[in-house]
Amino acid sequence: MSPRAAWRLESLGFREVHDYVAGEADWFASGLPREGRDATIPRVGDRARRDVPTCGPRDPVGEVRNRVRSTGWDTCLVVNEERVVLGRLRGTAFEADLDTAAETVMEAGPTTFRPDARIAGVTARMRERGTSSVVVTTPDGRLVGVLTRAQAEGSSVGD
Amino acid sequence: MPTSIDRAEVQRLVAAGAQLVDVLPAGEYAAEHIAGAISLPLKDLDVRTASRLDRERPVIVNCWDYQ
């Protein structure tokens, strides 16, 4: 639809016309501002915690574990220099030898949700699967945060 | 010839004064749209409705996705 509109505007004499081909789907999924009747419906990105600990793929597990525990979290997301999520550390991964690289013991490719996903649907899915938290990223895989079940259900209690 | 642009370029152009135009039907625009977008449904796009836009500033059109 937008390519036709762009050509039509050009035929009407507009000299500089651009087409945002990925459109609203891309904009909303990136957690960018929206307006309209449905804009106030709570979305995953509204409640995701941005303070989740992160580490690089080659960071030693011992150092990461100490840092994560000092923050009160039990999860750490492994990201590259572009903040793209590569994996997740939790549970027994933190029991690896101190010098082990995070990428060696991380869970690769955790399931992610987009910031514009509706909270109600994601919360229901978390309940069904017994999930305590989900990772939130932009369409290009960059970390937004982590939505804990408590946050999703409207509690102020952390993970 | 219209150029295809990505999200980052949309943000850059809008910050520089470009007009963002949502060409979806009015009902869909009312439900939800990109903040700051102007509604100009494709089916209503003609000389008269386009006169709402400033011809001297860049225009960016968007719909839902690649369709």
**Number of distinct helices of chain A:** 7
Report the sheet-strand fraction of chain B: 15-25%
Shape of chain B: globular
Name the average pLDDT of chain B: 94
Task: Give the strand tally of chain B.
Answer: 5
Cα-atom radius of gyration of chain A: 20 Å
Largest interface in this structure? A-B, 36 and 44 residues
Helix content bin of chain B: 25-40%
Total count of strands of chain A:
9
Beta-strand level of the residues of chain A, as a percent range?
A: 15-25%
Poorly predicted regions of chain B = none
What pattern of helices and strands is seen along the backbone of chain B? EHEHEEHE
Number of helices of chain B: 3
Average pLDDT confidence of chain A is 91
Keywords:
heterodimer, A: 159 residues, alpha/beta, four-stranded mixed β-sheet, three-stranded mixed β-sheet, elongated, B: 67 residues, three-stranded parallel β-sheet, 28% helix
Descriptive account of the structure:
The complex is a heterodimer of chains A (159) and B (67). Chain A is α/β, with parallel strands linked by helices and 159 residues long. Chain A contains seven helices and nine strands. In chain A, the strands form two sheets. Chain A has a four-stranded mixed β-sheet with strand order 3-4-5-6. In chain A, strands 7-8-9 form a three-stranded mixed β-sheet. In chain A, strand 8 and strand 9 form a beta hairpin. Chain A is elongated, with a radius of gyration of 20 Å. The C terminus of chain A is likely disordered. By secondary structure, chain B is of the alpha/beta class. Chain B is built from three helices and five strands. Chain B has a three-stranded parallel β-sheet with strand order 4-2-5, covered by helices on one side. The radius of gyration of chain B is 12 Å and the shape is globular. The model of chain B has no long low-confidence stretch (mean pLDDT 94). The interface between A and B is large, with 36 and 44 residues. Strand 2 of chain A pairs antiparallel with strand 3 of chain B, so a sheet runs across the interface.
